[in-house]
Amino acid sequence: VDRFLEVVSRLYEVVIFTASLQTYADPLIDLLDPKGLCPYRLFRSSCSHWKGLWIKDLENLGRDLRRVILVDNSPSAYLLQPWNALPIKSWFFNMADRELDDLTSILAVMATVEDVPAVLKETVGPSCRERVLQQLRLLGEVEDERDEAEWFKYCPI
């Protein structure tokens, strides 16, 4: 985590945006970022709650979305701006996990891109839609093609 934060904080304005409650998340973020490289934090109160899902609406950041990347392990988090999302696998105490190393390299390249959604749509687009669908199926929100069409009329995937 240390190397990841060192690198990305030099390339980006890093905002920790979690669907967790602030009372739970703040102490964990303090442990993960003791140097304060990520001074901005958003919590569940900054998320939208819709049909049982916590959604991170990047419009609320007040930034140019062509330059915003959301790294998240939950497809429901990026329902509103899927083309700004870089999906990441959940971490479960696997010390051999190299996900952050891979992500560091990807983010270094993406820092040079003028239009993040255009690039991510081409590179992770199909997998992004499938991840969102998979989560919606697990939640019982999508059972057939009609349900799928209903969900995606609100979401630009």
TrEMBL record:
Alphabetic keyword roster: Mitochondrion, Protein transport, Transit peptide, Translocation, Transport
- Transmembrane annotation, as ranges: none
One Gene Ontology term from the biological process aspect of the record: protein transport
CC per GO annotation: TIM23 mitochondrial import inner membrane translocase complex
Among Gene3D superfamilies, the record links this protein to: HAD superfamily/HAD-like
Report how it sits in the membrane. Answer: Single-pass membrane protein
Where does this protein reside within or beyond the cell?
Mitochondrion inner membrane
Question: Which top-level group of life is the source organism from?
Answer: Eukaryota
Q: Which PANTHER family match?
A: DULLARD PROTEIN PHOSPHATASE (PTHR12210)
Protein task: Essential component of the TIM23 complex, a complex that mediates the translocation of transit peptide-containing proteins across the mitochondrial inner membrane.
| Stated family | Belongs to the TIM50 family.
Q: What is the name attached to this protein's record?
A: Mitochondrial import inner membrane translocase subunit TIM50
Q: What is the protein's species of origin?
A: Toxoplasma gondii TgCatPRC2
